[in-house]
Amino acid sequence: MATPCHGYVNNGAPQNGVVLPVETGAVQPQNSRFLDPAAFRRQGYQVINFIADYYARVGDYPVHPNVNLGFLRRQLPADAPSRPESSDAFGAALRDVRDLTLPGLTHWQGPRHFAHFPASSSTVAALGEALTAGINVVPFTWAASPAATELEMVVVDWLGKALHLPESLMFCGGGGGTLLGTSCEAILCAIVAARDSKLADIGSRRIGDLVVYCSDQTHFAFRKAAHIAGIHRDNYREIATYRDNMFALSPAELHAAMQADVDAGLTTAVDPIGELRAVADAHGAWVHVDAAYARSALVCPEFCHLIAGTEAVDSFSMNAHRWLLANTDCCALWVRTPSLLVAALGTEQEYILKDAAAEGHDVVDYKDWSVTLTRRFRALKVWLVLRCYGVEGLRGHVRAHVRMAASFESKVQADARFEVTATRQFALVCFRLRSPEKLGGEKAANELNRRLLEEVNAAGSGPYMSSAMVGGIYMLRCAVGSTLTEERHVNEAWKVVQDRAASLLRKMENTCRGVAK
Amino acid sequence: MATPCHGYVNNGAPQNGVVLPVETGAVQPQNSRFLDPAAFRRQGYQVINFIADYYARVGDYPVHPNVNLGFLRRQLPADAPSRPESSDAFGAALRDVRDLTLPGLTHWQGPRHFAHFPASSSTVAALGEALTAGINVVPFTWAASPAATELEMVVVDWLGKALHLPESLMFCGGGGGTLLGTSCEAILCAIVAARDSKLADIGSRRIGDLVVYCSDQTHFAFRKAAHIAGIHRDNYREIATYRDNMFALSPAELHAAMQADVDAGLTTAVDPIGELRAVADAHGAWVHVDAAYARSALVCPEFCHLIAGTEAVDSFSMNAHRWLLANTDCCALWVRTPSLLVAALGTEQEYILKDAAAEGHDVVDYKDWSVTLTRRFRALKVWLVLRCYGVEGLRGHVRAHVRMAASFESKVQADARFEVTATRQFALVCFRLRSPEKLGGEKAANELNRRLLEEVNAAGSGPYMSSAMVGGIYMLRCAVGSTLTEERHVNEAWKVVQDRAASLLRKMENTCRGVAK
Predict the structure, then answer these.
(1) Where on the tree of life does the source sit, at the highest rank (chains A, B) (predicted)?
(2) Sheet holding B236-239, edge to edge
(3) What's the complex ipTM?
């Protein structure tokens, strides 16, 4: 073992002989000491207090830590300890989580986290995860934990209805859903099912002829999933979208792209854009809609007009861990024809015990609905969240964020130095500082906004945002999505953006003046 | 909403107007009520007590529930509640978890769970999961939570060393590792990296020419992963193994299979058998070793002779959630050449903010090491487990199970009616009842053992085992792996097997006698 450092001193514990119990000092040879109820209760209270304290003070941490690459690796020993380092190893480890780890995290739950995408936490989902980890069953088949499979079937229908999905995607309508880890996983499952169903028609050796289509605004998870599934990189078609059309995908352009491929002897496979079903139908394509983020908003009836056209999709996925208070990870995938998913992802082996009760029935073995065999009991937290907050609770959560984002957007619009660069999507505002004329074109504007973001994020105690490059335009992204974010944090964030912009513009004016001299 | 049923009564809570806070009765319009520290503390203690009580009495549940398909779905409403059902919705939901869900689960943590594979829980890992869910960061890049990425880099090296892996697979030796969800995911990542690295040599359009090889004893996760990655089903080669060679893979047979494919113009891609490196090398194959289960045993030096030949593998995976007390899910994947993994699975987009500190350095962005982008902070629980139990603690855990399995095996061997059907692998005993001569051949023996397993598992309060079919031989599997399993549970299990066998044989004798009359 390397030189002990902070928190890793062995405290004189013997290095040889019998394995010492972790906490009591008495010899306890049984493995059952690792699941001792009394120890769990004691340590569990410590953990609950730890997390409660974290929620109370998470706003005091800089959202993004000011640390250098390697800062933590340098502080930790090169080897795991051979024995628990002290009689209170758990307490010591918790202190290290607090003192070494927390200051080096990006605090996604901080009220000033406006970067990337929301990862809305809730107490109920966090505790649901704790329950799942504590109970630790592995519901890979119905028989391997019947209640876990059945609860999952129930909550995906609950969730689907709450989101106003078409019934054809739910168990109650002949389809069905499952809870996976992430969007990438869900998209990969859909692509593999689409691929295999297409190959069954055209010949199993023609994988090289399959083409996938998406808009150039599609999340790169789609590209990644298609690549993993063996779709050739030359066979992705990212249909260009334009700012003057608000970056929406044009059916005419999709049709043209598909026709060109058909003329070239290729075959359409997957299209993530539900609104373009008619075009897809003409080419027999599988339509998958991934709405990792925005879909959460559809718990609110006022956003339901956005659903038009998705009634006929083949599959649909959305991350409940983004905006529906379900904590990471929890992505729901629904499919119209579960048998196609099972045909693509199913496995059958003698050693998987089929329960007598399940034989001959239409049993759902979720191992055949996903990439993985081993899976967690994710349905538990979703059940708890829906029961404890109700669909109205989720609506309130989403609406409050949308309201705050709208307020941020109106502030941007009211300041002539700035512009909103894309239609606000729910609680995401994309904006930028207009480049003063004397500084020149897009390139200078991009550079200006890159510096602006740097300065906004450098504030430490201030907001933390991210950026996007769309159609050659660099923009700042303000994603309102943290559970703890309140109106005042959004107002403060805007104030920081304005201040930094003013100082930046002043500096540049001075530089220009200096050059002019 | 459907008719309310058990636990779903709305208790007179108003159905319209402002969203009510979950517990306090006061109007609290902020989303922050979903992360209220006081509510978390109160509910958290409830959950800790719930889990502690579960550990205390999990042995009282039948391991496998006696329920029919649909038993739980029928009891739950068709829609999620619109509002929290009462002022103590959380308490009510917890009671339903206890009364509706627990009795319908297969209790993987029960001391009599000998089925499938181990899912060893520990208090520390369960609480590590709770911490991860509570903190809820998303370390998809280094910058997105630096301490999470660095801790992962540290613990995969700790774990690799504890398992006596070659340094070439660890960060300290130029390789590196990551923590994924499951073996399937890890194998898929390795196959995609192998596939792409091979296609770069032979031409990116030749995916149809790639062949994967494994022994017919390989877990079907391998087949599934290869299929997802687009390897044609005709291009899996399962090399037959034989009982008289203890189901080991023969290098000569592998070589012959590879040579036949080369002669047919195909290309070798992936071989999961490390010991056959020399054969693989001759064909430029990527060698992946998956040791979802057995590898855990290599924390013990006395099992290290089994490592011979794996020094030169390209990638290696093992499930820490199986036998190393890490709770589901936690699969470690190590690779010799991380750049090949990143080339296959990497994504690069403008909107991912690179931290200034990371620019130009060899930063690890774990989103490029796996199928998924969003990921959980799994390193935390592994860190806690290794610190609180030490490597010696894990050794003690594994050794106790191996000892119990050896004891079970010797009981089987001592009873002439039974035979051990495959060499005991660590804590897994495969065995069967010999078929009495008058009953005839293998088919009758298989049927006899099928009925034996049924009767063993039907006992309710008794052990729960699973089965395997290998080389046409049906066998019972007794996998000792639950943290709470003690010697007495194993002894009881054997007693049940003997009793049921005796009664079964008696019945059959009677039937034969009846027929003979």
Answers:
(1) Eukaryota
(2) B176-180, B331-335, B315-319, B286-290, B267-271, B210-215, B236-239
(3) 0.90
